[in-house]
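Notes on consecutive records. When two proteins share a document, each keeps its own sequence and its own token line. Never mix them. Below: protein one.
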Amino acid sequence: MVIILSKKPFNQDRIAFAVVNGHVRFTEPGDTRTSQQWLSDFGIGAEEWETLVRGYILPGKVQFFTGPWYTPIDMSVVTAEQFCSIMAEHNTLYPGVRPYAYNGVVKGKPGEEWTPVITLGQF
């Protein structure tokens, strides 16, 4: 028996983020475009998209990754200001909820929650 939990290609409640030209950019709540579609607004093509620090925010969760396989990033490339900006966005969206930060995910099927590779801690 196959149970389909979701036909969504990803969690559409998520707020995606990416570091573009040194600045953290966030999707607007309700934006259901893929990160590649959304980042095209900033002139980001497929080749650059594959190298960007990207991720998403959900209640209690900040997920970092890069590339088409959602691999862990080198956290040393994320400045303290960028990290704080991402955490501040989480805290604005979900006041009183302390987020866990994760780095990289094991790519799974669309609609499933993908398992983080590295737990960075709770902030």
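Protein two starts on the next line and is unrelated to protein one.
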Amino acid sequence: MTTDRKTVDQRRRQHLIFIGLFLLTELLLIWRSFYGFNTADEMYFIGTSERIFRGEKILIDEWNPTQQLCGFLLHPIYSLIRSTLGSTEGIVMASRFLYLAFEGVIAVFLYLRLQRRGFASFGPVFLFLLFAPFGICAMSYNSIEFGLLTVLLAVLSAKMEHSVPEYLLCGILIAMIVLANPFALLMYAAYGVLCLYVTVRNQRRGTAAEGPLHIKSFLWMTLGAGIILFFFVLFVFQRGTLSEMLANVPHIVGDSEHQEGYWYKTKRYFYLCFKNYRFMFCGLGLTYSLTLIDKKRCERGVIYMLLASLSVLPGMVYYGFIAEHIPVNYHAAPVILVSGSLFCHQKEGKAAILRLVSAGAFVHHDCAVCHKHGDCYH
């Protein structure tokens, strides 16, 4: 009884400290929202939703595929805010507060998922809360894909057996991630191939594939993704026609803004990543290398999570609060931290999922950002 009471008291103390730090961080971010004005991307994100609100046709009236696809996801909430305000006056502050609410909800969800790790769970939660892609606190395709991918990681790593509604929810999240970044299809395809391989292999061995690695789980997720696809297609063709969309395809894939070529931008992007974040890359590389050779990594998970946090924290604080210019949009860093910290606590089956998703996060974030925006210019 004494031990149980002590555990309850420690957990209550942990929760109170988290609530205090969370509220303090939110107040700091709210205070910061009243200062500064971004003259480029922040207004582009808001302007895209405004044009869709006024009747612009997705994939027809706009050549840039990124934010307009997210405009479909943001359209209901933006329409509500816009109708409430009655004009665009105050829309920038409303957008910033919407972003803080989005990040705050996900941060609380992550804490609830990781709380049993003790105070070590504060690391990935507050790194997520403090980080904003390009330092722009707005509902951009970057922040949407980053936030939802983190939720997807947390849900899939919670336990090996999930219910059908949970898999449908994961599919819905994946569809939203794809709308935010179409290159996420590569990650989803890789996940499907892995599920098929594991299912076939286990059938030959006479064993059952673990939950998220079974092909049935993948199919349920695909059904969930299909729900979002259905409403997206309905929304697109409610305003335009297939012929209009096909006529705009050459402009969408042409990327008239950057003409250097895909492989040049990919190479340049990785070069800038290492140039500006070499400490983080070296620290995370060393940490993950140790987990691969340490057979007791599950028992030392907290230590590895703290080492990963120390590797990422300096860069996050510097580019989040000190530097006036962010040299490269390396927004996969917190995702890798979260997935890496979870990996340290998982058995081999769960680790396979986390390795796949974190590797997919690397691939689709890096390729998509440099392809769509040519980050060699930033």
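For the record: Residues 2-159+239-377 form one domain.
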